[in-house]
TrEMBL record, chain A:
Keywords: Cell projection, Cilium, Cytoplasm, Cytoskeleton
Localization per Swiss-Prot or TrEMBL: Cytoplasm, Cytoskeleton, Cilium axoneme
GO cellular component: radial spoke
Main location: cytoplasm
Gene Ontology annotations of biological process type: axoneme assembly; cilium movement involved in cell motility
Source superkingdom: Eukaryota
InterPro entries: Radial_spoke
Protein name in UniProt: Radial spoke head protein 4 homolog A
Gene name tied to this protein: Rsph4a
Compositional bias per record (Acidic residues), positions renumbered to this chain: 353-365, 373-382, 544-563
Sequence segments annotated as region (Disordered): 1-179, 353-394, 541-563
Annotated source species: Dipodomys ordii (Ord's kangaroo rat)
Biased composition (Low complexity): 16-32
Residue stretches of biased makeup (Basic and acidic residues): 44-56, 104-117, 145-155
Pfam families named in the record: Radial_spoke (PF04712)
UniProtKB/TrEMBL annotation, chain B:
Assigned keywords, A-Z: Cell projection, Cilium, Cilium biogenesis/degradation, Cytoplasm, Cytoskeleton, Flagellum
A GO BP annotation: cilium movement involved in cell motility
A GO cellular component entry from the record: axoneme
Domain of life of the native organism: Eukaryota
Classification via InterPro entries: RSP9 (IPR055316)
Protein name: Radial spoke head protein 9 homolog
Gene name of the encoded protein: Rsph9
Organism listed in the record: Dipodomys ordii
Length: 698, 223
């Protein structure tokens, strides 16, 4: 094989040597088809017997290797002067890849001779070091077509370089046919090759290179059934063009988070016995506290609000897990608050009577302060006593009342454990009203703001939940009513009635009515007073001991006890038509979910004050939902409040006068003046003494 | 158009033909006298809508890196072989580009430019966005979906399923621009004032000095 190759190569070289001068005539870059009667003849003779063998046409300098697309160009090499009709023969399908090696070197001579017009670029050589099996397939059609009608093809195929060839004469005489058929073939092949090398106008690649790359890859990797995955390979090769090559480190753990969350959520899908005591628990729970989240989601979907079936179902299962593990009377999906790193899914629950866990009571800071002050007064009289009296911290409301009516559980994702949020204090609500921070998603994240927020993110979250609930939880008029036993009318409980119950005789309101008039909806969560509580707490009312103390202090100082006006807010179950507008925008936008099918439509209300709060009702059922960032709407962008002015350290009184330090010049002037006055004083004294002396003398 | 419609604040009405009225003080010179005249400018809601959409697109429309590429001739094409971002890239802000004409590329140092691939990195990346931290990246469903949310225009959400060709963005919101960050408040003010001054008209200027101390909105009128 090798020997025959080299033999042929030598022949070729000889041939080429002779072929150079005549190679110049007529035909161009595709010069392969140049007829050269004398030298080709012996060539042909030799080559025919060597037919079955692959044709190592090449020049030794050429890289050997299978040339997949080389077959079409194969003829180009020998053709300089070697019209070889038999050349067509080896190109019939069935030719082994071993033919390849020769083809490549074959090309060389033609290229060397006419590198410029030759369409092929050196890159081709480099990219065709081999000839894959599939290369044979390529050659097949070419060979066939060439064999069939070289003459016709000659006329038809006009490669770009041949335009200037004046010698193209379809009517060349027959005797030359045999010589030119291969040249025809060569031309055709050259045409084909140049077509393949057309650069794509979009991507700058060309098919020739791409095929070469692809075949290289296949031969390197030798996949099984390459023909089945050839398209994928092609795509991969194209893709490789775009990726940066220098990153060789591969990340092994890429899929782990997906598995993690799947594992966690898989637990949700497991039914039944989570703990041993479940059986009893299930028996006890007569009424299922689990809300029908999917049904609400279905209605909200009609309004265009929701999380998607997938996520909602997982949340549903997570809620089920929550109700299974905690003694919960009532549970509701409150909504979802988005955060920067993670989101919060919030469930509003009401524990069963008496089953609630006690929380560690926070010490009343105000009491301590008062005590501390009185002690200080006794011990150290000398230091000026600060007149600052911290305003008494307003105590938080008891659980199950007011802003703490419900307990809230949050989780970042369904599958993760539910975390209970602490009760909210009025101070937190008051401060939350003044700041606007995005949630990060971590409950223990600090909230750094001005004014400083007393607590971390879980407290801020709880405060925002309280505000949103108070502002946007609404129900159709009549759904809730005040209990019969509740609140004698005479006794005005501070803050109004604070409990309600479902109206068993609620008959529903027409959906159309719900949309038309906002007075058909009422708030069923108490309004939070500016103080931060729902039920007014009078800070001047203290327990008796304190009262006495403080009254004494106040009497000493001569201050009058503060009169703080009781703050009032709209009572429970006020219609939302009473809500204030924001700069000419109505606080709620109501619409029917469908104008086309009003009989099955639902009424949807969207809050404009808290973007993200929605409520729907189909007349009988209703539900509230929140999904958003957790901030109130404000027309202007948020600006933090102004810092308070710096306190005076102590008032300027007669004993202590505050003046600026004298500057150096002033001091020197003063010194000079002083000296001058001293001098004068001395003089006067002397003169006085003189006078006295004089007088004495007299 | 942006400056014109920016004067209208507040929510959209929902009716494209709604007209907002905005009174401006314009200096009118008649002969030798010049005085301020109140001009009521009518701005249609659809104009405002168009302008807001354009602003949002310009500011926060994003595409993942590799989804578009640029030919040496300058034209941009969709990359048909884009197979999605890999997991290591998906959490980085630098793998996402603004879908608008690049403004920042020239300012990069040569060192940075050396690392760029000119066919792929021809748009501004999100990494150097001002204000910093105005994008929130979250993974949903384990690692099956990455969601970017803009804080500059809250309501703009971009999603992408890694290793697939799916990506897209959508804006659902109240067209309220998010608050600028602390660092940029002063810049915003400076440019705003500049705008007024160079416009040539005398208008009421809202001067708000920001920066943490002494925040006081004050009104000044120029003559």
């Amino acid at each position: 094989m090798e020997s025959s190759i080299s033999f042929h190569q030598e022949k070729e070289r000889q041939e080429l040597g002779g072929a150079e001068p005549p190679g110049e005539e007529g035909a161009l870059a595709a010069s392969p088809h140049e007829p050269e009667p004398p030298s080709p003849a012996p060539w042909e003779a030799e080559r025919s017997p060597a037919d079955p063998e692959p044709r190592p046409l090449g020049d030794v300098p050429g890289p050997r290797g299978p040339a997949p697309a080389a077959p079409p160009r194969g003829p180009s090499a020998p053709t300089p002067g070697s019209p070889d009709p038999d050349l067509a023969a080896p190109w019939r399908p069935g030719r082994t890849s071993s033919a390849g090696p020769g083809l490549d070197p074959r090309r060389r001579p033609s290229e060397e001779r006419e590198p410029a017009p030759h369409h092929a670029s050196p890159s081709e050589e480099a990219s065709f070091p081999w000839a894959p099996q599939s290369g044979a397939g390529l050659r097949g059609p070419w060979g066939a077509s060439h064999d069939d009608s070289p003459r016709e093809e000659r006329g038809v195929i006009i490669s770009p370089e041949e335009d200037s060839d004046g010698h193209w004469d379809p009517a060349l005489p027959e005797p030359r046919a045999s010589e030119e058929a291969p040249s025809m073939l060569d031309i055709a092949i050259q045409n084909a090759k140049s077509f393949l090398q057309n650069t794509s106008s979009k991507t700058g690649l060309n098919l020739y290179d791409h095929l070469a790359n692809m075949l290289t890859k296949i031969l390197d990797e030798r996949p099984e059934n390459a023909v089945d995955i050839i398209e994928k390979i092609s795509q991969d090769v194209k893709l490789a063009h775009f990726s940066k090559k220098f990153d060789t480190l591969q990340n092994e753990n890429e899929l782990l988070p997906a598995y993690e969350i799947a594992e966690r959520q898989r637990a949700l899908f497991l039914q039944g016995h989570l703990e041993g005591a479940d059986q009893e628990l299930e028996d006890e729970m007569v009424e299922n506290s689990l809300p029908n989240v999917m049904e609400s989601a279905y209605y909200f979907e009609q309004a265009g609000v929701g999380l998607g079936t997938d996520e909602t179902y997982r949340i549903f299962l997570a809620l089920k897990q929550l109700t299974d593990t905690h003694p919960i009377q009532r549970c509701r999906l409150w909504g979802k608050i988005l955060g920067l790193e993670m989101n919060y899914i919030i469930a509003e629950v009401e524990f069963r009577e008496g089953e609630e866990e006690e929380e560690v009571e926070e010490e009343d800071v105000a009491n301590e302060k008062d005590n501390g002050e009185s002690e200080a007064e006794d011990e150290e009289d000398e230091l000026p006593k600060s007149l600052y009296k911290a305003p008494q911290a307003i105590p938080k409301e008891e659980s199950r009342t007011g802003a703490n009516k419900y307990i809230y559980f949050v989780c970042n994702e369904p599958g993760r454990p539910w975390v209970k949020l602490p009760l909210v204090t009025p101070a937190q609500i008051v401060t939350a009203r003044k700041i606007k921070k995005y949630f990060t998603g971590r409950l223990d994240a600090p909230v750094i703001s001005y004014p400083p927020f007393p607590g971390n993110e879980s407290n801020y979250l709880r405060a925002q939940i309280a505000r949103i609930s108070a502002g946007t939880h609404i129900s159709p008029l009549g759904f809730y009513q005040f209990g019969e036993e509740e609140g004698e009318e005479e006794e005005e409980v501070e803050g109004g009635r604070d409990s309600f119950e479902e109206n068993p005789e609620f008959e529903g309101i027409q959906v159309v009515d719900l949309v038309e008039s906002l007075s058909n909806w009422v708030h069923h969560v108490q309004y939070i007073l500016p103080q931060g509580r729902c039920n007014w707490f009078n800070p001047t009312q203290k327990n008796e001991e304190e009262e006495e103390e403080i009254e004494e202090e106040k009497e000493e100082k001569g201050e009058e006890p503060d009169y703080i006006e009781q703050e009032v807010g709209p009572p429970l179950l006020t219609p939302i038509s009473e809500d204030l507008e924001i700069q000419n925008i109505p606080p709620w936008t109501a619409r029917l979910s469908s104008h086309f099918i009003p009989q099955y439509a639902i009424a949807v209300l969207r809050s404009n004050l808290w973007p993200g709060a929605y409520a729907f009702s189909n007349g009988k059922k209703f539900e509230n939902f929140y999904i958003g960032w957790g901030h109130k709407y404000s027309v202007d962008n948020y600006t933090p409040p102004v810092l308070p002015p710096v306190y005076q350290e102590y008032p300027s009184r007669s004993e202590v006068i505050e003046v600026d330090d004298p500057s150096v010049e002033e001091e020197q002037a003063l010194m000079a003046a002083k000296e001058a006055s001293e001098f004068v004083a001395e003089e006067i004294e002397e003169s006085e003494e003189d006078e006295y002396e004089e007088e004495d003398e007299d | 158009m942006v400056t014109q419609t920016d004067v209208v604040k507040g929510r959209f009405m929902g009716d494209p033909s709604h007209e907002y009225e905005h009174t401006e003080l314009q200096k009118v010179t008649e002969g030798e006298k010049s005085f301020d005249e109140e001009v009521v400018v009518q701005i249609k809601e659809e104009t405002r809508l168009v302008s807001i959409i354009d602003q949002i697109d310009r500011a926060v429309a994003i595409v993942p890196r590799g989804a578009l590429f640029k030919t040496p001739f300058g034209s941009t094409h969709v990359n048909r072989t884009f197979e999605g971002l890999s997991m290591s890239e998906v959490k980085k802000l630098s793998s996402y580009f603004h879908f608008r004409e690049a403004v920042d590329l020239k300012n990069k140092t040569l060192l940075e430019k050396a690392n760029l691939d000119p066919s792929l990195d021809f748009l501004d990346s999100l990494e150097y966005d001002i204000p910093k931290g105005s994008w929130s990246i979250q993974m949903e469903r384990g690692n099956a979906l990455v969601v970017l949310r803009s804080l500059l225009w809250p309501g703009l959400t971009f999603y992408h399923a890694p290793r697939t060709k799916n990506y897209g963005y959508i804006y659902v919101g109240t067209a309220l621009r998010g608050p600028p960050g602390q660092e940029t408040q002063s810049k915003a003010l400076a440019s705003g004032e500049l705008e007024c001054a160079t416009a040539g008209d005398t208008r009421t200027r809202l001067l708000a000095t920001a920066g943490g101390d002494n925040l006081q909105p004050s009104f000044e009128e120029d003559k």
